[in-house]
What does this fold into?
Amino acid sequence: MKKQLYTIIAFVGITLVSNAQNVTIPDANFKAYLVGNTSINTNADTEIQVSEAQAFSGTINCSNMSISSLNGIEAFTAITNLNCTDNDLSSLNVSSNTALSLLSIFNNNISNLDVSQNSVLTRLWCMFNDITSLDLSQNSGLVFLQANNNELSSLNLANGNNTNMIGCVTNANNLTCIHVDDATYSTTNWTGNDFNKDAGASYSESCAGTIGIEDNELESTFSIFPNPTSRMISIQLESQTNLVILSSEGKTVATLSGASNYNFDAANLENGVYFIQSENGATQKFIKH
It folds into this structure.
């Protein structure tokens, strides 16, 4: 009797361990694609193990497969290319896919896209969706964007890398202002077939609603140079003033106090757009590259 009980407990234990090793993939079409891909399903069984997902560092191309959910994609932490175009997706979570360089999601029903964790993303195709706001300020490697035919009313492209853009298509949206590193540069250089925006949209270095702090560039009470910078930045004030340095999302990354002139070392900051704000609310922008 004791032996029989022991056998049952051991069997249950094995079953639980086995289930824990499998990736949960609720969409049958997505699962069929993954299971049928021998580069992913290396043991040729009917499930995708977590170890298999984590080991795969190639391309997932599941376009035009009537997929309504890509749940399970988060287990593929090393993929570099994801193509899920022409499906029935309403949401997508790529926050764990930190090696992702190419992302193609066009012609779905996605309304929200967060790529803030995809720091090595270089190309993004997200046209023909329902996206209302897109923040690419953390994607300092981005060189190409195609986001036309969405519902965009907010687009932040100020990531310190705009001079390397080879294409930016944003027409057929609700944009009036596109936040960029340098408005003059984008207006002058972003031309031709690979660059297209609505006639009513303009490039600006300060678009309301695209950054996490209030757009409050008062009459300047201090100067900063060089700008852009790769490391040191000199801040000259009219009088002793406390300062905070904010990310484009409004998060405090440094505080400066007790002086009228500062030399700030930005070497440890990630590339992107930052704001220096004085205690009276005056704000100056600088770019770390």
